[in-house]
Design a protein that fits this description.
By secondary structure, the protein is α/β, with parallel strands linked by helices. It has 16 helices and 9 strands. The structure holds phosphoric acid mono(formamide)ester.
Length: 381
Amino acid sequence: MTTQIDEHLRALKPQALEALLGHSLLTTASASDDDLGAILSLAEIFAELDRNGIRTPLCPQELAYAVFFDNSTRTKSAWAGAAARLGMVPVIVDGSSTQVAHGETAEETGAMLGMNAHALGIRHDLILGEGNAFMRDIKRGIDSYLAATHDSRRVPIVNLQCDVDHPTQAMADLLHLRQRFPGGLAGKKIAVSWAYSPSYAKPLSVPQGLISLLTRFGAQVTLAHPEGYDLLDAPMDQARRFSSESGGSFRVTQDMDDAFAGADVVYPKSWGPHSLMLDRIAANRAGDKAALVAIEQSCLRQNARHTDWICDERRMGLTDDALYMHCLPADIGAEVSPGVMERFRSDLAREANWKVYVIMALLAGAKVPFLAQRIRALISN
Ligand code: CP
């Protein structure tokens, strides 16, 4: 039982674990290869410990506070599950119920939350150009408060999805891929594709998180989307750079069939039209709710020009018996056909389940000194 855990623990570089202490992961692109390697190994260790019923109360009675400015099912539950497994007390609040809605700045909010909390999760993904900046301001507020009060607590921030990245999702996806392809991702053809959605204009952060992470592991990543659905420049630049450094490749097409042809993995998922998503910034700053509704309707009208961008049996037939992936929830009958969804239902659940262990890895990695020794002690007790 512990052989696999032992192997992972032996593979952990002590300096990499040391570097995680106090670390807030706001995008995977800003994490070094060693940081990422340590976080992924820790997630695999926590998954294995959990499967074997070994308890991991590494941060007892600490407060794991999370603020969500958008809906969530999986990430909220993963946050609560991770905190509970670490012995922390999880508290999740709706961002619109905080004083941020009345104009309190992110920095002030950070200081106030950091006073009590021992870790802070944030989802702020709806407004392009704002979510990641908000998290950085919150972090500045917490760090200034802790420094000014000579408080030695480590209060890491975990990005639970912003406008730029959805790191806990992308790392959960990567762990699912590592399990499916134990020989590694080098040379694997992965299609990250836009797909039609009639429900709402979804953030760009999932495809951005995927292209900027999977290109680090030698995969041949193809991004497909209709005209007007471009992603932000920074993750596109990262994907180009990482793919060239890792020996993989990265290309863009406006043809979903082209992306699916010969693919080993397909990840078809909707996101909003770029220029309309940017229009939300001014409407949001002005607090103009009518304008936000009108922009949303325009997004959906533009999406409706591309209803043929669906992952169905015909398209799956173009692939090399590909693994279908999605961060969920999927628009069944729009992004994906009911048949494809049904065929991959248990794979999708396994993919989603990795997130709890990614969050455990981020929290424990940032908070617990001598983590490898502490984990060994849990096993031998
Ligand atoms: N994939 C994902 O982040 O799901 P939730 O929006 O339900 O958290």
